[in-house]
Amino acid sequence: MAGHQYTPEELALLKLYEQFLKLSNDTQIAGRFILLGPDGAVVATGSLAGRDIEAATAALTSLNDAKTATEESTRPDPFTPTVALDPALEAEFEEHCIGLDPEFLMDLAEQDPNRAVAAFDDITSQWDGGDL
Asked: N or C: which end of the chain has fewer CB within 10 A?
């Protein structure tokens, strides 16, 4: 490719290719790869020995595990509200949920399933249909 002007993306792929080649001098081919540029043109092709594939996989796994651990430690708690809750609605919701005593309903269901369903319906029908 004499005279070809490489894009920054292609140069980055060539650097990756160079790193693959530096893994070892082992010529036993266990796999082949093709690096394509953003436009789909072939930038480089190569082959790797089994131990090279294992080494590259281990290195990337380690890198990704560290990245995931860092991202998870800085990720906000999904159970922490990101908007302020209306105290009146929160109190109404809590009051509504207090009536849903699961132990009472399960004990009742063991004795008489129809009565348990009726009790559940009674508790949930007390909600006025407003926003929670």
From this structure: N
